[in-house]
Design goal:
homodimer; 213 residues; Rossmann fold; six-stranded parallel β-sheet; two-stranded antiparallel sheet; 15% strand; DNA-binding
DNA sequence: AAAAATTTCTCAAGCTTTTAACAAAATCAA
DNA sequence: TTGATTTTGTTAAAAGCTTGAGAAATTTTT
């Protein structure tokens, strides 16, 4: 991991993607995969696949390919997702509650260990009803305290746009390390807190750009 | 628009982002913005901002900057979002219903004109109750027919992973032009149908990669 | 009206990323 | 065991993207 000083951001994105494709292969009981096959699944160049892995070591077997189980572990190690990450969701509206019960998180090492809203009582009934079991939703006022108590490192923002920055500030104050913002406005934080803004409309915008030609 | 043959994908992503920041400026009653200011808001280099626009024409005024209103229109023209895009959402579970009522789509020219589920009756009650108004949810069996009737060009997939590819195939058959896949597995389609896979866990993966160092 | 200041636009240099090509190593077949 | 085949890992070339610097145009100041 010292051989290369800088890893392209695109490589990181692709690693996460390879992982998804490896899951797919594994579910089809494949044991081994070549860079060519994986590349085809991910719409990238086979040389790219090999190069992406080469940044971090030698994971393959020449003449054979990559053992899927091993490769998955290597990628998880690289990404840092071979351990549990404790997450808080802030804003339990439609999107927030969708995230709360999002099955895919459970399979990963992402664990939602707290949910906050400005109206926990009003919201709790609605959510619990929908889930068929009670979910503990706390008032945002307790965010700082609870985030620290529960060792939460990541916050997911699913509040309305006008509240998004305020919540981001709260999360920063509570000393989370990273923020995933799903509200439709960009939020900002000091250098030491990493932010990912994920906008549905941006995904559509870029899709539409390519449709329009 | 003939000066440059190929536009970097990163430029397209940034254009969509500039738009978000311009909205923000406009809401603060700003009329004009310089590449320096916009760059700072978007965490990019000012030269990058100017270059991104230069691909498509001359939108600025020297010594002054960019008129926000004009610039927004230019960007919308470039992206192709200055007209209405008609969308179908398939899979009205938690995430699907969140998307259905997602306020940000309404403000854009993205219009959800159909919703499908495998169990429209069971789901309708739940959704309508939550929205306080009845929402028409159709059976997936009618997808092809309705997509054509209603001139739908984009499909959003929010079904469980094991159904995702099937739904993608259905949408392709119904001749949509593009697909936004929010299910947690990659879906594939023939060349002529554009796909955007948007995975929550991928956003977290890349966030975590940078947190782990 | 002229000078100073500002800011875009353009060009080219510099840097990064991707791709191709090939040597090296392992597997597979005879 | 040997030879043929496969497929990785590596290097270097090619392509692509970002950035800096300066000319050109506009605004602001004097």
């Amino acid at each position: 991991m010292a051989k290369y000083s800088k890893i392209p951001e695109a490589t990181v994105r692709r690693l996460s993607n390879y992982l998804k494709c490896l899951d797919e292969l594994e579910s089809k009981n494949e044991k081994v995969v070549s860079s060519a096959t994986l590349a085809a699944m991910c719409n990238v160049n086979p040389a790219q696949v090999r190069k992406d892995f080469a940044y971090f070591g030698e994971f393959g077997v020449r003449g054979m390919g990559y053992r899927i189980k091993d490769l998955k572990n290597h990628i998880k190690d690289i990404l840092g997702i071979n351990r549990e990450w404790r997450i808080a969701v802030v804003g339990i509206g439609n999107l927030g509650s969708a995230i709360l019960v999002y099955k895919d998180f459970l399979k990963q090492n992402y664990k939602i260990v707290a949910a906050f809203d400005i109206d926990p009582v009003g919201v709790t009934g609605r959510i619990s009803e929908r889930l068929g079991k009670p979910v503990e939703i706390l008032h945002v006022d307790s965010l700082k305290e609870v985030v620290k108590q529960r060792n939460i490192e990541i916050g997911i923002i699913t509040v309305p746009p006008q509240e998004a920055q305020k919540v981001a500030d709260l999360l920063v104050e509570a000393e989370v390390k990273g923020i995933l913002n799903l509200s439709p406005v960009p939020v900002r934080a000091p250098e030491h807190v990493k932010i990912r803004n994920l906008f549905f409309t941006s995904a559509l915008d870029s899709l539409v750009y390519y449709l329009s030609k």
